[in-house]
Design goal:
This protein is mainly α. It has a single domain, classed as Tetracycline Repressor, domain 2. It has ten helices and no strands. It is elongated.
């Protein structure tokens, strides 16, 4: 039951916001008593924290799935972005923006995971792109990892509207890819822009 509550709460938090959803809302949606929820979670903050941890696992799995498909580096970035859009499609407001605003302590703990996970993913993608001759081989990989990380997370931290954040992320992906791409990489980028 605990896992079902975490899963349902996570869905509702993403769809309607971390602040607006109450324990009553979750109980009503699941057709259980609020007492049942409090049996596993002494307060909403703990439920939010566990929901965010579950979301981390889903994000990690999503990235692993995209990488396992052996796309080229540019195609892989667009596929990961597409999967993220799908995962957060029902959100009206950016989940990261909401966490930062309403649950700063959970946000701070979440940030450490995000930094490690994203920097690892970005670094791996850049190295793959260099090997595939889609990205220039003279890149300062660590600098480009940081540039892209700061771009993406500043968008998510400071943009309340999820649809606006998605559009800006798409622009950031194109900007990031163009900055690194070889001539062959630009051809692949243009192809992906037409598809997506």
């Amino acid at each position: 039951m605990k896992d079902k509550i975490i899963e349902k709460a996570g869905e509702m938090f993403l769809k309607l916001g971390f602040k607006s959803i109450t324990m009553d809302d979750i109980a009503g949606e699941m057709c259980i008593s609020k007492k049942t929820i409090y049996k596993y979670f002494c307060n909403k903050e703990i439920l939010v924290e566990e929901s965010v941890q579950l979301l981390h696992k889903e994000v990690h799995q999503l990235i692993d799935n995209a990488i396992s498909k052996n796309y080229n580096a540019i195609e892989e970035n667009f596929e990961i972005r597409r999967m993220f859009v799908e995962l957060f499609k029902s959100s009206d407001t950016s989940p990261i923006f909401q966490l930062k605003k309403h649950y700063p302590e959970i946000y701070k703990n979440t940030l450490k995971f995000q930094i490690e996970e994203c920097e690892f993913c970005f670094r791996q993608n850049i190295q793959k792109g260099i090997e595939q001759k889609l990205y220039r081989n003279d890149l300062n990989v660590e600098a480009y990892v940081k540039f892209y990380y700061y771009l993406i997370f500043n968008i998510n931290e400071n943009t309340a509207s999820e649809s606006e954040a998605k559009q800006l992320e798409y622009e950031a992906l194109e900007y990031h890819t163009r900055a690194m791409a070889t001539t062959e990489g630009i051809i692949e980028l243009e192809k992906q822009l037409k598809i997506h």
